[in-house]
Amino acid sequence: MATGDSSVREPPATPNLGQLVRSGVRLMVWGRSDMGQLGVQALGGSDFLVGSISTPTQLEALKDKDVVGLAGGAFHVAFVTADGELFTAGCNDNGQLGRRTSGGSSSARPTHVTALESYNVVAAGCGATHTMVLTNQVRTGCSKERWRIAAQRSRLVKTRLEFASHACEEGWGRRLWLAITPCGHMFLNPPQGGVLGWGGNEFGQTGCGSEGPDQHHPRPIKGLGDQRVVRLAVGANHALLLTGSGSVFAVGQGSFGALGQGEGLLENRSTLVPVLPLMPLGVVQVAAGENHSAALTADGRLYTWGRGKYGQLGHGDWGNRPRPVLVASLRGVRAKQVSCGGDHTLVLAEAGTGGAGADADSSTCRGLVYSFGRGTWGATGLGSTDNICRPSRVQGLESENVVQVSAGSRHSLALSASHKVFAFGNNDFGQLGLDSDVVPNGRGPATFHSGSGDGLFLASPRRLTSLPAVPVLAVLASGDASMVLLQEARPGEIVLAGPHPGRRAGRHLMPYDVPDLRHLAAAAATASEDARMMRDVVTAVEDVMSSPGYLLALFADGKSSCSTSGSHTGKTALAPSQRSLGAAVTHGSTASISTLEAATTAADSDKAGAEGVGVSGGSIISMPVGMDVSAIQACFEALLRLYNREVVAALGNSLMRLLDAIFLLASTGAVPGSRPPSGSGPGGLGGITGGSGGNGARSVLGATTAASAAGASLRSFGVAAAAGAGDGAGAGDSVASGRLSLLRALFVVFQCPLLSGSGMGLGLSSSLASRLISVTLRLPGDALQLLCTWLVSLPRELLGGRVVRPLQHYLNKLAEGPMAPDGRAEVLAAARMMAGLHAANEKAGGKLPFSEFYNQQLSTHVNLRSEYLLWLEVAGGRSTPPPGSSTAAISQPLVSLCQTPFLLTPEAKSRILQGEAHIQKEAEMNASAREALLQGLHPIYAVFLDISVRRASILADTAQQLASRPPHHLKRPLRVSFVSQGVAEEGVDQGGVSREFFQLLVAEIFQPQYGMFTYSDESRTFWFNTSACLEDGAAGEFRLVGVVLGLAIYNGVILDVHFPQTVYKKLLGEPVGLPDLEEAFPTLGRSLRAVLAMDPDQVEDALCRNFEVQYDYFGEQRTVPLIPGGTSIPVTGANRAQYVQRLVEWTLNESVETQFRAFAYGFHQVCGGPALSLFRHEELELLICGLPHLDFGALEANARYEGGYHRQHPTIVMLWQLINEMDLDQKRRFLSFTTGCDRAPVAGLGALVLVIQRAGPDTDRLPTAHTCFNALVLPEYSSRSKMKAKLQTAIENAQGFGLK
Q: Where is each HECT domain found (predicted)?
């Protein structure tokens, strides 16, 4: 930069750092200090060591530093300042101080670790011989003081920077922003959450990639990739890292299963490995003891694993756990902090949340302390030295509202909301900080001699009275030492006790506060020009939306029993960028787990019950418990209303990573307590390699390829893997809860507006839909059924707009393109997903109309013939299971779209049916031709079903000729001829003659004089005559009617029949009930409804009926008992439901059983192929009867003109004007005149092409029609009135062929 550049201003003078330090902050320490681990120097300020300090003493060496973070191991400590500096003291035998020490291997003076000068340290953790720090910035070339001022005035020059130097080799090769300060220095700001480690490396605990030599200089941990770490827990020789997306990684000593990798995987790890079972649970805090570990979820559940010899895992036994297992004894208790000591564990929980010992009557929110593990020195605070293997409440703290706990090697500390500090456990080195007059001789009910000199320990909490009377910000029990952070309050200032989200002091000792996207998006909307605010939104979206557990916490509808400031379970009045959500998710309850188990085990018996699913009478009422659907919609809308492409891209990429995580978890069997499927890889997939996703998005684990290697089986997702025998109590609950978390996450993703194309042109909908379907379909059948049931439980507008129509849109895109093998597989996958939704929709009573599932593009573009043949060949002509049956078939891949007939329009199904008929006709014609040749006949005389009838006796002639034909002849193409006055009419049957034949025949069949059917004026439909079959030969007549209907469908002819839909349901084998009776017999149906609604006490007197029914048999009243002895059993309020059921069954089934059986037999003789099973009863009626609605506008739009006519020709204009002026009856006559049928085909008049031919100039001849070809031959009439008269005459005298 040129020195003469006037635009460059000199930076202001460096301010005094003392002015920037918060006033009144004090650090008090006490306990063991023989290795200098308290940072307290001997008198005179020398670096000599002090053996121990029994009373709280201020750490003078850091009195000018704003200490915000504390960490300690057995023999060394680390302090983090608000400026991002790290100070260490204590033993340095293994280089754990990160600096050189003079005069020996220990240092009692806290000294700045200059190797971290370029990093902004935010938290630290100390093990037995190693140290780790969490950072969020990289600084180069500019001192902290100068940067502090310059950064406020700099113009940030943002650019992508990929390290190719040492920084990349050390794991910093991530997306970085380069900022240039006015003084010419650079500031590298990577995503927050880098971790460095150093010190003893015997077990690979520094994460450097190898075991063995100590690491004396801080180095970034291997295998972190682009993960952003937000919490750090360091045990004796292992460590746990929690990322912003809820993933947990482990490194170091694997003995006893402390790394949570599963049985047989107890080896040490020198690079990070994911603890996969925790991924779907929404972990907000991790804790590490000497050889055991713990994780706390956003909904307050606790998982532990590792060594359990002293009961420190809390599972009710003394065994180890190689993977995370839910602490079942704390079910119903909402934990809000966990701390692991050497061999004991402390849990801080909310009062009033139920569970063991919960104070359900508490009117105020109080923090209660539970402990378990080694009690040798009283560190559990339970008043005895017994080891405890189940969580027990610390009685000595019941009267206090505890806000923080901390567990050391052999002692514990607790901080109350009233700024009281309590200590209990071992006091060999004065770590309890007790005054000499508290227990002068070590006597008392909870005081015991330790047997080691003058040392003693307390088995019950005692308050420290030696601390200054100032507010306490945080406490820490480290090794055999103790520390507290104090702050003197300014006048009028109220300082809350304990770590608090609004301040940095001790923040990393408490759970991570998950960002609340709704508040962040609302804040960003009001400050759209604030780039930092928008980056906060992007980061929060990337974290929350890629974590199943955080996602569920964000959209929880439950409220915690009490909200504690500073806890991950409550919300505080913070700046918008600091607001965190209340993770009140109730899905860890006992009911949720047990009911899911019930749903899975009952899947085969079709009585699915699940968490949030009530089973009553076989029907399912569903909604995932704890999910706030309105919050889901509000959050998505708030994010998209920002109209920011980075936010939208982050949302899409995060959901993709979420789906990758779900796939990885399920395919490896890594739900808590479960086991991987056979042949799959281990739960821990080794080192995790980072990599940037699209648009700079982070990957969930950086190892999605490992998911494929692990196998696609999701059977571990099922209850069959009942969570590991030997995992102990809580394992089964862990499995159920992990599975439910994954299902709930999918439930949220299905509601994302990006699926419907709201992606600002980023093209996210198709890729997101493809991945979502792929992951979802790897669920077993029962899990898929449960998810679909949840989705169908959404409000109708959300189910249609957010779930079904986006999937239809995705199918449309697939159908429009060329159907390559990969494309076909995607179509079948999407169709299978729709099959699950359709089945759930039907089971819910048709929340969406069945027409909502039709896909016009698919029905138009797919090769229906190929689909039909493949269906017959591979699937045997079977569709997906009907509603209410087992979903086993849905869990298997589809082979043909004919297995999902609900996607195909009635027109497409009609084409399939006609295609099937064509195949059958060809087969029958070939067989008949061969038979004719063998008999010496010409095949032309044997390949058709020829029927010749007289118009005056059409029914008798048809019955006689059909009865004389063997059944297989009915499969031949139909060819009809009419005979008038002994002479055959001129019409040649190319379809038109057959249509007129069926029209006349059907009209004759339903004439009252035959007595086969009765007509209801109320419903305007025909029903089978109850008395008809008592006469000889009546069954054959009903068979004839069935054959006629079958022949009509088989030959593509529409009939004018008026049956209630009950008939079509019975033809398809569907059950019928009271709603069907109401449609066929409205008055009777309403009466039965009234009976069911009557006061039970009034039924018998008001009804005065027995269990019998009477009907008319040619004027004679006959009585039929509905049940044995029914003529003497009265209908009462207790048995009225049975009466209604039996009357419905008799009316619709039993009374016409013989008639309908013959009718159905004749129908299926002709039309009983597999294609018929594709139809719903509504569609079958449409197929037989056509559309009653006539859209002549569509007919006009698709008409074709020949012989000189065109759309604008004056004659054509006059013709359509006349047609539009006709009434409905005249229009039907015109349609019958031109096409041979007065009804529209299945696809409507728009699918029928009317051909209008010119028949010469003006003439007195009538217009004619070729019904076989839908052609109207129309002369060019000279006037409108003449055309009207001629046309009217023609359509009113249109019966017969060859008329002049």
A: 966-1300
Within the chain, what is the greatest distance between any pair of CA atoms? 138
Structural contact between residues 98 and 119, judged by C-beta atoms closer than 8 angstroms: no
**DSSP summary character for residue 417:** T
Mean pLDDT, rounded, for 558-578: 38
pLDDT band for position 1191 (cuts 50, 70, 90) = confident
Rounded-to-integer distance, Cα 289 and Cα 304, Å: 11
Q: What is the mean pLDDT of residues 193-198?
A: 89
Instruction: Give the three-state DSSP class for 413.
Output: strand
* Helices 1034-1050, 1153-1167: crossing angle, 10 deg rounding: 30
- Measured distance CA(783)–CA(768) in Å, rounded: 21
Amino acid, res. 826: E
Q: pLDDT digit string (tens) for 1080-1094?
A: 999 999 999 999 999
What phi and psi values does residue 710 have, to the nearest 5 degrees?
-75, -10
- Please give the structure tokens belonging to residue 689: 């390699």
- Residue-level pLDDT at 365: 65
CB proximity list for 160: less than 8 A, separation 6 or greater: 175, 176
Instruction: Return the ∠ at Cα 1266 (arms to 1265 and 1267), rounded to 5°.
Output: 100
Distances (CA, A) of 831 to 1, 196, 815, 893, 901: 63, 49, 11, 10, 10
Distance CA 428, CA 446 (A): 16
Among residues 1091, 600, 1180, the alpha carbon closest in space to that of 909 is found at 1180
Is residue 775 within 8 A of residue 663, CB to CB? The reply is yes
Would you list the DSSP string of 946-977? EEEEEGGGHHHHHHHHHHTS-GGGGGSPEEEE
CA distances (Å), origin 1227, targets 607, 923, 1221, 1234, 1277: 52, 39, 9, 11, 20
Backbone angles phi, psi at 373, to 5 degrees: 120, -150
Give the C-alpha separation, 843 to 838, whole Å.
9
Question: How far apart, in whole angstroms, are the C-alpha atoms of residue 76 and residue 90?
Answer: 4
Amino acid identity, position 649 = A
**Burial class of residue 530 (count of CB atoms within 10 Å of its CB; 0-12, 13-18, 19+):** middle
Specify the residue for token string 């293994």: 94
pLDDT digit string, tens, across residues 1134-1155: 999 999 999 999 999 999 999 9
CA distance 783 to 776: 9
Residues 6+ apart with CB under 8 A from 478: 37, 70, 71, 72, 73, 77, 126, 408
How long, in residues, is the chain? 1300
Quick one: tokens of 1245? 């008049």
Radius of gyration of the chain (CA): 41
CB atoms within 10 A of CB 103: 9
- Annotated catalytic, 1268? yes
pLDDT of residue 682: 32
Residues above pLDDT 90, as percent of the chain: 40
- Between the CA of residue 1146 and those of 631, 987, 1114, what are the distances in Å? 50, 47, 19
User: How far is it, in rounded angstroms, from Cα 648 to Cα 548?
Assistant: 19
For residue 301, the SS3 value is coil
How much is the average pLDDT of 965-987? 82
Choosing from 1029, 1104, 1167, 1268, the catalytic residue is: 1268
Instruction: Report which of residues 687 and 206 the model is more confident about.
Output: 206
CA–CA distance, 418 with 613 (Å, rounded to integer)? 44
Q: What's the rounded Cα separation, in Å, for the pair 486 and 497? A: 10
Does an H or E element contain 1266, and which?
A: strand 1264-1266
* 160 DSSP 8-state letter: B
Q: pTM of the predicted model, to two decimals?
A: 0.77
Distance of CA 1288 to the CA centre of its chain: 62
| CA-to-CA separations, 937 to 356, 502, 928, in angstroms, rounded | 93, 100, 11
Give pairs for 1031-1034: CB < 8 Å, separation 24+: 1034/1155
